[in-house]
Sequence to fold (256 residues):
Amino acid sequence: MKKLNLLVLLLGLIAISFMSSCDTTEEPGEENPTIVLTPSGDISAVEGDSVSITATLGRNTLSKSNLESFEVDADGTSNDTLVEYPNNTTNESFTFEVNAPVAGQQNTVTFTLTDKAGKTAAKTVKITGATALSAPTAFGVEGVPGILGIGLEQFGLKWSSDYSRFVIVKQHADNKLVSLSTTDWTNLITKEDLKDAVDSAVDISPYVGVSETASGTYGDVIATKKGNDYYLINVKVGTVSGGGTLRPTIIGNYKK
Fold:
């Protein structure tokens, strides 16, 4: 009988041990909290503009009341704050507005989430101030037989010396002329963006996007580097006049 009782006890202990080994439930605090930021990377914005950052917080999935606090440290701004995290939801999103610093300077915003076990999650975003491009300015350039043409010099360009072909070339070898996407006219908003786009693009010469012999409407976007200055050019219209002597005129807008 004693042997039977001992066998039953032994089987019971084995069963308890097996059940414990199969139980993967972790104690609250075993999983770290999480933070997801939108946008997810560093930000470049025009100086003084408001930058919106959304932080979506994820709590420990095993405990709906395990998060303790959420802190935002916005270096160089007055946006330091401490947010008490609510204990009755699975996750929360908080949106913060931070002004971009002056051009060339950088602010750092750090988001820190802490749970009751003392575990933390942290994400950092760097915000760099940039300089806005100028407002669009209208321009018109004319090709005149026998001379190098009118109006291209401001962009570091000139008409080809072949007066039978009114194509556009660089004024000097160290200038740069590139072709960009039509969307870059609206997507490039800072001088820094334009510089990066021109510096990384392939140099072209000549530009032959506009017909030399027939009028037309265009949407070409080209850009130039002249010394330390960068120009974003939207070619809109090409008009050819002059009867037997062609005189093409290109009309558009530019930003710098």
